[in-house]
Design goal:
This protein has 349 residues and is α/β, with parallel strands linked by helices. Helix content is 52%, strand content 8%. The chain has 19 helices and 5 strands. It has a 5-stranded parallel β-sheet, sandwiched between helices.
């Protein structure tokens, strides 16, 4: 099966794209698969060791207590589609990682699909991690009748070099969005806020910015509890004043680094997809994307995709005051410059 990775900074419309791709009869749309393998939110350390099926299944089926506590505290992300009020798994007992995002995109009955996977994956032999991931994609493709794999994990621009090393024949779609609009979306997103609060509280505690939630809580428990360690206080969490420039700088660093990694691959290995252009002209952009993926741009698919697109979900930058806008534009400048260099053909060395 061919594999393509959609990489982005997050908050770039890639969840919407996952839904659109799932509507295509040939595409296995793997939403947030690599997120399910993490044990630290936004940590981005891919498991690359040899493993057997039981180890892979433990990664996919294990529960993340921080994520479950955030949902229980009213901080569910909009990429999470599991039926928390009706599904078999409960927050109290722990939701399998793969059930938050990946399986609900693929089926209306994620519990049944989970059971089918649970019956087969743990029996697999030991082999390299990439071989296990390919086998997992192939199994889902077999179960769902899909032949082209498109994996999309938010904030995955940082993974390009690792993914290329593990999947040498893979191709990449860089989905991007206006940096200021993206930063303003990050400000409201619980997981991005969690990462920013971890950073800010580590500074306040006099610890390295990479300090764990637990280390921070040991120094300033009165600040950390409810914000970065359970039980979460949703009202206090969302009310914290986090400078939007933090997210604008994050966007810029990720885009500049991602463009550098992509352009090192050569022009046949990747393409770009603008969120704003997709909203403005979905038929043309999806037809181009389908050609890159090697699937037909069937009229029924294009029509169903259009129903998932809200052309008004853009332009947040036009609704903020001029001083903040100027600050955020300045923070986004390195990322904007990297994108412009690609558009002009002046790729970074």
């Amino acid at each position: 099966m061919s594999v393509t990775f959609v990489v982005s900074t997050g908050r770039s419309g890639s969840t919407m794209l996952s839904k659109i791709l799932h509507q295509h009869r040939d595409i296995l749309s793997m939403s947030e698969f690599f997120v399910t393998l993490q044990r630290v939110p936004l940590g981005w350390e891919l498991p690359l060791r040899d493993m057997d099926g039981a180890e892979l299944w433990e990664l996919l089926s294990g529960a993340d207590p921080v994520v479950d506590a955030m949902i229980a505290g009213g901080l569910k992300n909009d990429e999470m589609f599991y039926p928390y009020d009706a599904g078999r798994f409960t927050l109290a007992a722990g939701i399998p990682n793969i059930c938050h995002n990946t399986l609900p995109i693929l089926t209306d009955d994620p519990d049944s699909l989970f059971d089918q996977l649970a019956a087969r994956v743990p029996t697999w032999p030991r082999r390299p991690a990439a071989a296990q991931y390919r086998a997992f994609f192939a199994l889902l493709g077999e179960l769902l009748g899909r032949r082209v794999v498109v994996e999309r994990s938010g904030s995955s621009l940082a993974l390009i070099s690792e993914l290329r090393a593990e999947f040498p024949d893979a191709r990449f779609v860089h989905m991007y969005r206006d940096g200021v609009d993206c930063a303003l979306s990050m400000v409201r997103h619980p997981m991005f806020r969690l990462a920013a609060l971890q950073y800010l509280l580590a500074l306040e505690a006099g610890l390295p910015t990479s300090a764990s939630f637990e280390d921070i809580a040991a120094v300033i428990p009165e600040k950390a509890t409810g914000l970065i360690v359970p039980p979460f206080d949703a009202e206090r969490f969302m009310a914290c004043d986090i400078p939007p420039a933090i997210f604008a700088r994050t966007w810029s660093i990720m885009v500049a680094g991602g463009v550098e990694a992509l352009t090192a691959l050569g022009p046949q290995s990747w393409t770009q997809l603008s969120y704003e252009q997709l909203l403005a002209d979905p038929a043309s952009e999806l037809t181009r994307l389908a050609g890159f993926l090697g699937v037909p741009a069937e009229p029924d698919w294009l029509r169903s995709a259009a129903e998932l697109i809200d052309p008004l979900r853009t332009g947040a930058a036009t609704r903020i005051d001029s001083e903040l806008l100027a600050e955020l534009r300045a923070a986004c400048e390195p990322g904007d410059r990297a994108l412009a260099s690609v558009a002009a053909g002046a790729w970074p060395a």
